[in-house]
Write a structure and sequence with these properties.
alpha/beta, Rossmann fold, binds 2-amino-2-deoxy-6-O-phosphono-alpha-D-glucopyranose, about 30% helix, 7-stranded parallel β-sheet, about 240 residues, 3-stranded antiparallel β-sheet
């Protein structure tokens, strides 16, 4: 595991964007596993900047996002599809048919989950998986549990996650109670993983995940079993 500490969110964003850009330049048809949350926003800005300068081409790149709220369609401002459009896909050219976010409004959620995993397999797996980390150690929406789940699945969000994410909604009652999340199988099968964590508030959970016991009670701890993880942490 490679651990990089920076002193600003800006620097974290630049370094992570360079990492992703290098992956796409070396392999334009890369499959990127992309993430949402507040932490990646700066990375997507840096990638947009590179694209505008003509230094980055996503026209062959595939993106398969980690997760989506159940019950929010892509037109809802807090859906992760909307987030990805706003922060990246509307600014850089990805072929629309090459960007994937789980459908949280699918009639048959179990079938949607199965299809999501099948899609990852059809594309040959993920080349580079970007991850944030929740305050409870979740990655994607893999919440603390008594077992790790390999497949994409529907998860009941914990009250602490609902509360943490309520800052994006006008009231806590509007936060969906469930989400679809990629499971640990697709995440851990990614060839490379880039984990970002911003701010002192994330330091404790990050250190525990990287150095403590591997346990489904702290989902990010499973990353200790992956052979190519880069962590970028900003102390700001
Ligand atoms: C959400 C997302 C995660 C993300 C986490 C942390 O719960 N499902 O993928 O890592 O938030 O978000 P933030 O970066 O805003 O702290």
């Amino acid at each position: 595991m490679k651990f990089i500490t920076t002193n600003s969110y800006e620097r974290l964003s630049e370094l992570a964007a360079e990492y992703i850009a290098a992956q796409v330049i070396l392999k334009p048809e890369s499959v990127l596993g992309l993430a949402t949350g507040s932490s990646p926003v700066g990375i997507y800005k840096c990638l947009t900047e590179k694209f505008r300068k003509g230094n980055l081409d996503f026209s062959k790149t595939v993106s398969i996002n980690l997760d989506e709220y159940v019950g929010l369609d892509g037109s809802h401002e807090q859906s992760y599809r909307y987030f990805m459009q706003e922060n990246l896909f509307d600014h850089v050219f990805f072929k629309p048919e090459n960007t994937f976010v789980p459908n949280g409004c699918a009639e048959d959620l179990a079938a949607e989950c199965r299809e999501y995993d099948a899609r990852v397999r059809r594309f040959g797996g993920i080349d580079l998986q970007l991850l944030g980390i929740g305050f409870d150690g979740h990655i994607g929406f893999n919440e603390p549990d008594d077992h790790f789940t390999a497949e994409t699945h529907v998860v009941d969000l914990l009250p602490s996650t609902i509360e943490a994410n309520s800052r994006f909604f006008s009231s806590i009652d509007e936060v969906p109670k469930q989400a679809i999340t990629m499971g640990m199988g697709s995440i851990m099968n990614a060839r490379k993983i880039l984990l970002i964590a911003n701010g002192q508030k994330k330091k404790e959970v990050l250190m525990e995940a990287m150095n403590g016991n591997i346990t489904p009670r702290l989902p990010a701890s499973i990353l200790q079993l992956h052979r190519d993880v880069t962590v970028i942490f900003s102390e700001e």
